[in-house]
Amino acid sequence: MIGRFAPSPTGPLHVGNLRTAVIAWLCARQQDGELLLRFEDLDRANSKSEHEVQQINELAQLGITFGPNVIRQSERFDLYRDVVEQLGQQDLVYSCYCTRREILESTQAPHGPSIEGAYAGTCRNLSARDRSEREQSGRPPAWRLRSNNEEYIVDDVVTGPTPTVIDDMVLLRNDGVPAYNLAVVVDDAEQGVTQVVRGDDLLLGTGRHLHLQKLLGYSTPQYVHVPLVVGPDGERLAKRHGAVTLEDLNQRGIDEREVLGELARSIGIDVDRPNGVSELLAGFSLDQLPRSPWTIPSDWQTVGYDN
Ligand code: GLU
């Protein structure tokens, strides 16, 4: 059994990331498995090695440590590009000249739950003339995977079977950087990952991953999409909600044992001031994982936050 935690090193981890890491660690250890750390640093402008160091320290404060095999997506661009080449040889890849704005404006009426930023397929069937006009515009293309908007059922441990409709996902962005959806599938397969624990904001995009796995002959890991951590307004946790990182919490006099105790209780483990994740192992069961979002405790919240 191999799990992974895959943060983007663009800043400190927030309590939502920490909670996901705790769950991923518990799932792996409960099955005598290993949890790998992978830095998803495709965003070259905001990823920094000092954030990697900080994130490793934050995880260590909760007792989560990793072996030496930490990988960085920024060091694997050739591998991702080789996979695009392989898909291109099967005529599954096409160039796309659409701007972000055009994509937002183009309407799409999928038959099932749509995915964020779904692409309507504008450049899929361009006439030769339209294509050459776009080529001449000088705008570098992104490269997309040709699909038939297939429906996939994500068999998720938390949410149960969840239907998703896929689109023609980007494989390489127009600045040449591989897309998250490609890199995550290649890495999970290449690292032999058998279980993926992550936030449920990524649930509906997982059909894209199943599609790529099928095309590339990879096996599909077990998916555990964890309901998000939210602020008092029910919105996804953000800085404005209050103390959202270990450092913020420490500044309020809330130490890591108290934080870990709250995270533990939020996933159904009754424990007071645990000294590291290993103290949660005996009380953990994936079946107890709440199916709804978790609101941060009131003493972590911004005073007077009433939005
Ligand atoms: N890198 C993503 C994040 O930090 C996680 C993606 C994944 O676990 O597949 O939210």
From TrEMBL:
InterPro entries: aa-tRNA-synth_I_CS, Glu-Q_tRNA(Asp)_Synthase, Glu/Gln-tRNA-synth, Glu/Gln-tRNA-synth_Ib_cat-dom, GluQ/Sye, Rossmann-like_a/b/a_fold. Gene3D superfamilies: HUPs. Keywords: Aminoacyl-tRNA synthetase, ATP-binding, Ligase, Metal-binding, Nucleotide-binding, Zinc. GO terms for cellular component: cytosol. PROSITE patterns: AA_TRNA_LIGASE_I. One of its GO terms (molecular function) is glutamate-tRNA ligase activity. This is Unannotated protein. GO terms for biological process: glutamyl-tRNA aminoacylation; tRNA modification. Residues 4-269 form the Glutamyl/glutaminyl-tRNA synthetase class Ib catalytic domain. The lineage of its organism: unclassified sequences, metagenomes, ecological metagenomes. PANTHER family: GLUTAMATE--TRNA LIGASE, GLUTAMYL-Q TRNA(ASP) SYNTHETASE.
